[in-house]
Design a protein that fits this description.
There is one protein chain. This protein has 3 helices and 2 strands. The chain is α+β, with helices and mostly antiparallel strands and 89 residues long. It has one domain.
């Protein structure tokens, strides 16, 4: 029995003149926008989901997590990352 794929839904959003101008020459804007959204979702914070804010419950979970973890700057690439104090064990 073949599985049915859900029907695609149309999603619209407002774009100002500068954005419309910037994407004006892209041959398949829908494909470009889909790819851009998927790329952005892959780089979204797993806690705040891109809002930049934590809920009170998330902050409490973070506090517990932070007891054994720290945010450090990598000496090689200079990017911040999480470091577990038990990493070398």
């Amino acid at each position: 029995m073949p599985t049915e794929h859900p029907k695609a839904e149309i999603v619209t959003f407002k774009a100002d003149e500068s954005l419309l101008k910037a994407i004006g020459g892209i041959p398949n804007r829908s494909q470009f926008i889909r790819a851009a959204i998927l790329a952005a979702l892959e780089n979204t914070c797993p806690l705040c989901k891109g809002t930049g804010l934590l809920t009170p419950n998330q902050r409490e979970h973070w506090r517990k997590f932070a007891h054994t973890h720290s945010v450090e700057r990598c000496e090689d690439c200079q990017e911040f990352h999480l470091l577990c104090e038990h990493e070398d064990e």
